[in-house]
Amino acid sequence: MPMLPLARFTVLDLTRVRAGPTAVRQLADWGANVIKIEAPEEVDTGKGLGGERHGPDFQHVHRNKRGITLNLKHPDGLAAFKRMVAQADVVVENYRPDVKHRLGIAYEDLAAVNPRIILASISGFGQDGPYARRPGFDQIAQGMGGLMSVTGLPGQGPVRAGIPVADLSAGLYTAIAILIALLEREQTGKGRWVHCSLLEAMVGMMDFQATRWTMAGEVPKQAGNDHPTTIPTGLFNTADGLINLAGGGQEMWRRIVATLGIEEQAKDPDIATDALRSRNRAKVNAIIQEALMKDTAENWIRRFNEAGVPCGPVYTMDQVFADPQVRHLKLAMPVQHPLLGEITLVRPPMQIAGVEPPRRPTPERGEHTEEVFREFGFSAEELAALRAKGAV
To answer: Is there a cis peptide before residue 324, judged by omega within 30 degrees of 0?
Structure first.
């Protein structure tokens, strides 16, 4: 089997819950040697793990890692960790900003041991500033970053997104920062401290909605299932179900009109141009809706796609994985777990030609402690002494 793209990098993973583990999983899924570090069970209640260890959430975010136990609050445990840092490439943590300084694992502490080390930190609100020590949570960041203000039906009031957007995007942005730092290190030979927060990630993910404010002074509102700027784009009923239809611009409008057979209605001067259709969205949607009720969702989806107009069904999760294209893409990935048997996870969404991502199940707590410590040069006697002291 060929070496995986990130196999040459060793990552020490101190993360919990979701944002941090999401960042690390991007590296683990492409072969990085990821060591998941947890406190010994007797000093860790397991609170904040991110779901039951054998549940879908935990198994999803911690796959392709090996697990060890190490008590960083014990001086010998901290010394053992720094001995590992000397041979590692990346450390990832998502403690509150002050914790790493208290533990003695801030960037300056780690760089003194290994100048090439990259420390990646994820927090709720940033490493400094008036909110730095606040506890972070995805929904809080969704609210403060503006997402909830534009999600939901007009007049409904703020609505959270159905996935933890702030957590996931903070993890993805952090993974990108780690890779950038690794690339830079090839030129400089030195590591860096990279960090992201749920709030920064959420504001960044607001993208064009954010720049509608920063550039034009426009406060975006809730648009429900309609696209806020591209008309007509939205959710429509057909004779037997819902479809999504998307088509901004004059050429796309022409195709929609021809497919629906609404040439006469389209002569209305109120909807003659993109700008007018945006101003008179309700009239446009009503014309489209009336025509769509004359046939089934399946037939309309076929016709619109044949005409080159983006159109698709609205699935529940079971329907997603029954879809022939999702099946063709093999997005459901079987993984063999020693206790759970065969489980099905979601494979990485990107594809790298000629590379098959690993399928290592999430480790049990401390499952690989002896194996990993041996690889880092610890003798059996040293490990036994660490165990006896409660440092491992």
So the answer is: no
Note whether 276 and 267 are within 8 A (CB).
no
Report the C-alpha gap between 278 and 238 in whole angstroms: 23
Q: Using an 8 Å Cβ cutoff, are 227 and 218 in contact?
A: no
Looking at the DSSP assignment, which residues form a beta bridge with residue 343? 335
Residue with tokens 């491992």: 392
Inform me whether the pLDDT recorded for 64 exceeds 70: yes
From the candidates 13, 138, 167, 226, give the one annotated as an active-site residue. 167
Cα 254 off chain centre by: 37
Amino acid at 149: S
Q: Where are the alpha helices (DSSP H) in the chain?
A: 19-28, 56-61, 75-85, 99-103, 107-113, 138-144, 147-150, 165-188, 198-216, 250-260, 274-279, 281-292, 297-306, 317-320, 324-329, 369-375, 380-388
Is 167 annotated in the active site? yes
Q: What is the pLDDT of residue 314?
A: 96
Chain segment 193-246, per-residue pLDDT in tens: 999 999 999 999 999 999 999 999 999 999 999 888 888 999 999 999 999 999
Beta-bridged to residue 5, according to DSSP, are: none
Q: What residue type is assigned to position 148 of the chain?
A: M
Nearest to 288 by CA among 322, 240, 337, 238: 238
Residue 198: Cβ within 10 Å count: 32
Coil, strand or helix at 91: strand
Dist CA 302 CA 247 (whole Å): 15
